[in-house]
Specification:
The complex is a heterodimer of chains A (229) and B (620). Chain A is mainly beta and 229 residues long. Chain A contains two helices and 17 strands. Chain A is 8% helix and 41% strand. In chain A, strands 1, 2, 5, 8 and 9 form a five-stranded mixed sheet that branches. Chain B has a domain of 197 residues. Classes of the chains: A mainly beta (229), B alpha+beta (620).
Chain lengths: 229, 620
């Protein structure tokens, strides 16, 4: 009994003794979006495109900023001065190595400008008789870049991207258009037959338009469209 | 009082005596470590330090820790346990730490060896020269491994002594350019090649020919980066040249590589392994037979006296395993099997459907599908119906039962290996494949290259002593062919590549013309599972196209070939015959995605923290 009593006291002392490492957790939230011309840029969720550094400390370990597929990000930080870099070459946009100074004080909002090789705008999806139709406009922003292909990609969750997309067989020839011979002055129309095996049995489907630029591994994406049927 | 005084005197005397003896008492030779003087005055001890350096030369690939590296590619996938290694089949992209190398502890030890040996006067001059050259070869090889993974790294050629914080700044060394490291390798090898033994007496220690083989490989890598990096839409380079080589250096590097390859080929110290008239067995023996093997230039050897590996334990076909667990770890893909051409020169796609695609092609025996393929295929891969260790390896996924009412086949399978169908015939063969089971092939193939046929080598307590070949004449001939072709001398390139193909079983002069595609395919099939393709795809700068993350691309997914037995008694022409189905291997779920940031691995953060002069690699 006595032993138990002492051990409880010892535990209590042990717990309260942690004064030194009881830091306040960071609580200032830095939010923002990747934007071009004021519009968010859609990407594959999880690619490493933004890093924060806080200068003045012994090490230079970067803080990776996770960007969602709609181009938005949020990072919980301590107040202070940060340097934000756009890791060049990882995103489907023009490399820009300029450092951006960001002052975080309480909830901070900050949009990061990027210059994608192409933009996908006015993406609309319509569902007619088990065929998903999509139209969009593609604008070339950086001259000298070519489109490799543009396609409708499908997924079973709200996160849709090229590596995790469903690959229905047979491939619908209208779901992908090669870049060669693509007339960018006209809206681009694509369609996907939803009666093929992999798609017909899925109660939930999400679609997105994805554009591959020649020589750039990451694709550009439109917003995600939930297919309701 | 008098008593006490006596006692004090006595004590003082004892202490005095003890203190006097102290010096001698503490000044003793240690019995558990060797001192510098002892090591560097005895050639045998110096040699054992060198042996330690050699043994540490295998960080990536090989038959031990890196034995799963073929599963990084379209060559193979992991079919072993469902634990951590299964992540190799489901990874979204290669991590930036993949193939990362920052072995400055090893580089320091090599430099220490060189400095100590240089300073030693007790060593015989000729012996000393030989050992010095050997250590310099090791250092050049280590730097090659680094530049291949990381781009230009700090070139440290001496050891540093830490004498307090004031010294630290002088130790900070920036990265050398990528070209600078390759130039260092080239000049080092030129300087030492004549100081090394001139005959290829040892297959495991460096000699002139090993140095030339390294030069042939390193210069070819440098040349390809100089050429193909600059052909990319966005060449990968840093402003300081730590990554990326100027395009005008390409020709010079190709010339150096070709010259080194030619010296090996014309030196006639080596010949292609051709001891067995059975071409399949001959190609397999090339990797497993050590005696009288004149093709091997440099190998990492094993012996059953304590230094063996478990490559066979992990990769042996399921029905032949000798261990209670393991087997079927790395299983070759259909992608690789189809990369092997037919001996008549046609492309290697397997014929499983009738030309109009309406029906299967029915084969009497499993092995008939593979008739006429490049013999190297069966020498590298165990295909359904092959023989290994004198036993037939039957691979059958199930039965296709004909349903006359619907006019279609019904696929019957089972979760049990070696199960029987209601007609008394095999349902699932003893070697699978099964869709989601551990330690049975998922692709329909098993590994043969480097898997030991000696009984007992599949037991984890014993293991295999098959050696790992780093350089062999076959690879050097392909290096020569590529370099000559890139230098626009196809007439010189053709005989080299045709020599390799002739040994494989093709007729003489089987190729009449060359393209980069043909050469690259030859690299892929001749050197499969030899830790070659990953680096080849990298230096040709096509890895991000081959593994582009699109699951509809031909090589992003690991494909499988599943054989079925047909049950259709109404049609004797088809009954009990075999048909084959191509599919994506069920345990392989994520398409391979090689990002531009994977061309150079990430520099460890602790190195960046310690040395602010280091420039990061692109995309990290």
């Amino acid at each position: 009994m006595k032993k138990l009593f002492y051990s409880i006291i010892l535990m209590a002392v042990g717990i309260s003794g942690c004064e030194l490492d009881n830091f306040e957790p960071p609580k200032s939230v830095l939010t923002g979006r990747l934007v071009f011309d004021g519009k968010p840029v859609g990407i594959r969720q999880g690619i490493s495109v933004l890093q924060l550094f806080q200068p003045g400390f012994e090490t230079v370990t970067p803080i990776n900023v996770n960007v969602k597929q709609d181009g938005s990000f949020a990072s919980t930080l301590f107040d202070g001065n940060y340097k934000l870099i756009r890791i060049s070459g990882n995103g489907p946009w023009e490399a820009n190595t300029d450092t951006i100074n960001v002052v975080v004080k309480g909830a901070t909002s900050f949009d990061v400008a990027v210059r994608p090789y192409f933009t996908i705008s006015d993406a609309t999806f319509t569902l007619a008789a088990d065929v998903l139709n999509a139209t969009c406009r593609v604008t070339n922003v950086v001259t000298g870049r070519q489109v490799e292909r543009i396609s409708i990609i499908m997924g079973r969750t709200t996160i849709v991207d090229d590596p995790t997309k469903l690959a229905p067989t047979p491939v619908d020839p209208l779901s992908t258009k090669p870049g060669a011979g693509l007339d960018l002055s006209q809206p681009i129309t694509l369609s996907q037959d939803l009666t093929v095996p992999l798609l017909a049995n899925s109660p939930y489907l999400y679609a997105r338009i994805a554009l591959k630029v020649v020589g750039v591994p990451e694709l550009l994406y439109s917003d995600v469209y939930p297919v309701k049927r | 009082m008098k008593q006490l005084k006596k006692l004090i005197y006595a004590c003082a005397l004892v202490i005095l005596v003890q203190a006097g003896a102290c010096k001698k008492y503490l000044d003793r030779e240690p019995t558990d470590i060797l001192l510098d003087d002892q090591v560097w005055s005895d050639p045998k001890l110096a040699l054992s330090v060198l042996a330690n350096l050699y043994s540490r030369l295998q960080p990536i690939g090989g038959l031990e820790t890196g034995k799963l590296s073929p599963t990084d590619l379209d060559e193979a996938m992991w079919s072993g346990g469902l634990g951590a290694n299964n992540a190799r089949n489901t990874r979204v992209n290669y991590p930036y730490t993949d193939k990362q190398l920052w072995s400055y502890d090893l580089i320091r030890d090599v430099n220490l060896f060189l400095e100590k040996l240089e300073a030693s006067s007790a060593m015989d001059a000729a012996e000393k020269k030989h050992l010095l050259a050997e250590a310099r070869f090791i250092r050049a090889y280590v730097y090659f491994l680094h530049v291949r993974s990381m781009g230009g790294v700090p070139l440290i050629l001496k050891t540093f002594q830490y004498n307090g914080p004031a010294d630290v700044d002088a130790m900070k060394t920036p990265r050398t350019t990528e070209a600078g490291i390759y130039d260092f390798i080239s000049s080092e090898l030129d300087a030492i090649k004549e100081e090394l033994p001139l005959t290829a007496g040892s297959k495991t220690r460096a000699n002139k020919w090993t140095a030339l083989a390294l030069k042939s490989q390193a210069m070819l890598y440098a040349a390809s980066i100089a050429k193909y990096n600059n052909l990319m839409a966005d060449p990968i380079r840093t402003p300081g040249g730590e990554v990326g080589i100027p395009a005008d250096r390409a020709e010079g590097y190709y010339e150096q590589s070709l010259a080194a390859s030619r010296e090996i080929i014309d030196g006639k110290q080596f010949s292609l392994y051709n001891e067995n008239p059975d071409k399949v067995q001959n190609f397999y023996d090339l990797f497993t037979k050590k005696a009288n093997n004149r093709e091997v230039i440099w190998a990492f050897d094993y012996t059953l006296d304590g230094k063996y590996h478990d490559y066979t334990v992990e990769n042996i076909p399921r029905s032949l395993r000798e261990n209670a667990s393991g087997a079927a770890g790395v299983t070759p893909s259909l992608n690789l099997v189809e990369a092997f051409d037919y001996l008549n020169g046609s492309t290697g796609e397997l014929k499983i459907r009738t030309p109009n695609g309406a029906d299967y092609i029915y084969y009497d025996r499993l092995e008939d599908l593979f008739a006429g393929k490049d013999y190297r295929m069966s020498g590298s891969v165990i295909v359904p119906g092959s023989t290994f260790r004198g036993k037939r390896v039957d691979i059958q996924a199930g039965v296709m039962e004909w349903n006359a009412a619907t006019g279609q086949y019904i696929t019957r399978t089972s979760a049990d290996l070696g199960s029987l169908f209601t007609d008394g015939g095999t349902l699932v063969a003893a070697d699978g494949p099964l869709p989601n089971a551990a330690n049975v092939t998922n692709t329909g193939f098993y590994m043969r290259k480097y898997v030991d046929s000696r009984i007992g080598s599949g037991q984890s307590g014993q293991g295999s002593d098959v050696w790992w070949i780093r350089y062999r004449l076959g690879g050097i001939l392909l290096n020569a062919a590529e370099a000559a072709f890139e230098l626009n001398r196809p007439a010189e390139a053709l005989p080299y590549i045709n020599l390799v193909r002739e040994r494989a079983g093709f007729g003489p002069n089987s190729l009449q013309s060359l393209t980069t595609t043909v050469i690259r395919k030859e690299f892929q099939v001749e050197l499969a599972f030899e830790e070659q393709r990953y680096w080849d795809l990298k230096r040709w700068r096509i890895a991000h196209d081959v593994f582009n993350g699109n699951r509809q691309s031909p090589n992003t997914m690991v494909n499988a070939l599943w054989p079925y037995r047909v049950v259709r008694p109404s049609d004797p022409a088809k009954h009990n015959k075999y048909v084959f189905v191509k599919r994506v291997a069920p345990r392989f779920t994520q398409p391979r995605l090689f990002r531009l940031g994977n061309y150079y691995s990430i520099i460890p953060q602790n190195a960046l923290n310690a040395n602010p002069l280091l420039v990061k690699n692109p995309f990290h």
